[in-house]
Amino acid sequence: MSHAGRILAALGLAGLVSGAGIVGCRGDNELSGSVSELFPITDVSRVEVRRNPEALQVSYFRNNGLDVDLVARLTVDTEGVDLKPGTKVQLGGTTPSGRDRASVVHVAAGEPARVFTPVERGDLVLDEGGNPDQPTRGDFSLSFKKGDGYGAGRSLEGTFSATALDAGFGPDLGDVVGEEPAP
């Protein structure tokens, strides 16, 4: 290999390594993307992960004076998906029964809830956990469909790390809640 070729190869390798360092240095519980043109997405104060047999939900909260804003809530319908660490879940499109695979909402204090336009494409990957009471860590990246609607044509990326909470629906009708049935 020529001297110039070795220099280019070394630069390419250095760029690859430094790029991997940038990705690896991304912190937990952060949001980024062009939705920042609509509302502030930095200064996340708390992240909550909820899980039940039907969905995974990641909520990003921000302290706002005496209020707490729901900066963004990503809900992923897990129908037909084996949600386990390392699996890449496609966020665009619909589930086998026709529901949106993913949805995003934003609720700031004193404002109406804003439901984003449908997700066009993107993915979510869990690095660990994913079930109630498990430390759960992962990331997602998505873009919203172009056209009309809140957030149309914009992007949202995030990392998350929190112990997943049980988002179960409670006992089924007919289940005994107490030790003795009611009279």
From TrEMBL:
It comes from the Bacteria. PROSITE patterns: PROKAR_LIPOPROTEIN. This is Lipoprotein.
